[in-house]
Design goal:
The protein is mainly alpha-helical. The protein is built from nine helices and two strands, in the order αααββαααααα. Strands 1-2 form a two-stranded antiparallel sheet. α3 packs parallel to α6. The longest helix has 25 residues.
Length: 229
């Protein structure tokens, strides 16, 4: 195999910001981050890169965006007991299959709980995230990151703390998988994600637990087929 793909600047920026929060204590839990101009200058990146990095950390549960107020560090960070680098050697097709099997156990149950427990406001946010995936995909943007935010919104709406804490591990592994996915498979995965997200969202908005669970299971099997065929 060739050398691993170098991390994108936005990913390196997210890593640096994570270090400033978790390792260096530059920004404490619950604190507000500096405004976009100030923070992009501090990190020496463009505002676009910074936004991508922040979106990634939002999906990981590290940051929260509060409408009209700004970006804040989460009040409680994902447990340090979960080793987010434990799957760093995921660049293996066998391990990729293990990941999808794990998602088949985890995510259908999560979306079922979201049907039961989500507030109307949380359902509206999930719908907003689904539309954002559509828009970014149409613009040829970073749709996998937007798709992670859609799934993270569902997980938050499940109101299960252990599921919230497990997601960063799964999400980190998904990022690794995307690095070994060819352009053709990636395109198929995008098309399936867009179609499947609409179905998942439809069942969620109806609070149809069985339908949402089934739709999520089908979605993950579609992704497995796209990657291995």
């Amino acid at each position: 195999m060739g050398e691993p793909k170098k991390a994108k600047l936005s990913e390196r920026t997210a890593d640096r910001l994570y270090e400033m929060i978790v390792d260096e204590g530059t920004y404490s839990m619950g604190s507000k981050l500096p405004n976009e101009n100030e923070l992009s200058e501090k990190l020496q990146v463009s505002r676009t890169t910074l936004r991508e990095a922040i979106s990634f950390l939002v999906a990981q549960g590290i940051l929260e965006i509060r409408r009209g107020r700004g970006t804040f560090v989460a009040e409680e960070l994902p447990s340090s007991g979960l080793d987010m680098t434990a799957l760093a050697d995921i660049r293996s097709r066998d391990r990729a299959r293990d990941l999808f099997e794990m998602r088949l156990i985890f995510e259908p149950a999560t979306v079922e709980l979201a049907c039961q427990r989500a507030s109307d406001e949380e359902l509206a946010m999930i719908e907003k995230k689904a539309k954002r995936v559509e828009r970014i995909a149409a613009e040829d943007g970073d749709w996998p990151l937007a798709d992670q935010e859609f799934h993270w919104a569902i997980i938050k709406a499940s109101h299960n703390e252990y599921m919230r804490r497990l997601y960063p591990i799964i999400n980190g592994a998904v990022n690794e998988i995307m690095q070994i996915t060819g352009a053709g498979s990636r395109q198929r995965m995008m098309e399936m994600a867009l179609r499947d997200n609409r179905t998942i969202l439809e069942f969620l908005l109806q609070r149809d637990e069985a339908g949402a669970r089934h739709a999520m299971s089908i979605h993950i099997r579609h992704l497995m087929n796209a990657m291995y065929n």
